[in-house]
Write a structure and sequence with these properties.
One of its GO terms (molecular function) is DNA-binding transcription factor activity. InterPro entries: HTH_MarR-typ, MarR/SlyA-like, WH-like_DNA-bd_sf, WH_DNA-bd_sf. Residues 1-148 form the HTH marR-type domain. It holds the Pfam family MarR_2. One of its GO terms (biological process) is response to stress. It is a single chain. By secondary structure, the chain is mainly alpha-helical. The protein has one domain: Orthogonal Bundle (Arc Repressor Mutant, subunit A), CATH 1.10.10.10. It is built from 6 helices and 3 strands, in the order ααβααββαα. The chain has helices at residues 10-38, 42-52, 61-67, 72-84, 106-126, 133-151, and strands spanning 58-60, 88-93, 96-104. It has a 3-stranded antiparallel sheet with strand order 1-3-2. The longest helix is centred in the N-terminal third of the chain and has 29 residues, at 10-38.
Amino acid sequence: MNATPRWLTSEQKAAWDSFIRMQEKLIGKLTRRLQDDSGMSASEYIVLAKLTETEDGRMRFMDLAKLVEWEKSRMSHQVRRMAKRGLVAKEECPDDGRGAFIVATPAGHRAIEDAAPMHVEHVRRLFTDALTPEELAVLARISDRVLAHMERQPD
């Protein structure tokens, strides 16, 4: 049975189109700046940022994949590339023979410490400086609301 599509209204389409254009342009600019400034890809940055936000710079492989919303295969490839560059290491999980920890190496810690100040400055320049504190608060509430809504939806 084919249901009639629920097309977006012109207002909904305008909001959606603006959001997508802003997100794509912002992520594109931030990704290029990150690469130019640090030689690090956005994928490397997000993995190192999440690892170094933990107390011991380590996270279970599947927890990290879920946190960044990546499939297992994508995370495996990313970890392999980063391990070759010496940014992370994979360690066996002592209480789970099939599990593994991903650990930021000293080189990984240095790379994120070097990249983060420049990245944050670009985030400020391209994003937060464009909005008032009140607008940022509203955007955070909207984002949290959409995220919570998505969590309640079936896959």
